[in-house]
């Protein structure tokens, strides 16, 4: 089963500790960063559901609507209280998704997954996998020196 960058969940990565709230904030930009600071979990779900779009935030919540379904009713209410009647530009955060993917590759490799299997799973070439692993090793060596 292949996993593309668009299929990587920012919300899951935050919840699982793969990325920190500081990393999410750093990649979010100034305007979206305000939402991340107000409620990081809600902002991460927003990116997963609406990344790359401009989202109109209604004045009232429709409990059966897409916003409530995608974010959960409480998170949708939080968003409405912060941005009622506004258009919110929701970033895709592809650089953050790439960072998450690379961390997963390193972890899976450390647990015994071979570069060919990782390449198939993440729809990359073996050369790309080796490059990701090499960059990680170089970064780890710099941190220990």
Automatic annotation (TrEMBL):
<dbReference type="Pfam" id="PF08765">
    <property type="entry name" value="Mor"/>
</dbReference>
<dbReference type="InterPro" id="IPR009057">
    <property type="entry name" value="Homeodomain-like_sf"/>
</dbReference>
<protein>
    <recommendedName>
        <fullName>Mor transcription activator domain-containing protein</fullName>
    </recommendedName>
</protein>
<dbReference type="InterPro" id="IPR014875">
    <property type="entry name" value="Mor_transcription_activator"/>
</dbReference>
<feature type="domain" description="Mor transcription activator">
    <location>
        <begin position="67"/>
        <end position="138"/>
    </location>
</feature>
């Amino acid at each position: 089963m292949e996993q593309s960058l668009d299929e990587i969940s920012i919300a899951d990565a935050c919840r699982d500790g793969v990325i920190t709230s500081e990393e999410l904030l750093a990649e979010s930009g100034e305007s979206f960063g305000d939402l991340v600071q107000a409620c990081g979990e809600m902002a991460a779900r927003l990116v997963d559901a609406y990344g790359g779009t401009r989202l109109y935030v209604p004045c009232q919540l429709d409990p059966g609507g897409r916003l409530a379904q995608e974010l959960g009713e409480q998170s949708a209410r939080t968003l409405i209280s912060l941005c009622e009647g506004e258009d919110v530009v929701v970033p895709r955060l592809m650089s953050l998704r790439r960072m998450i993917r690379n961390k997963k590759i390193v972890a899976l490799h450390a647990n015994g997954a071979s570069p060919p299997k990782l390449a198939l799973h993440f729809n990359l070439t073996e050369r790309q996998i080796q490059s990701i692993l090499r960059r990680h090793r170089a970064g780890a060596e710099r941190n220990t020196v």
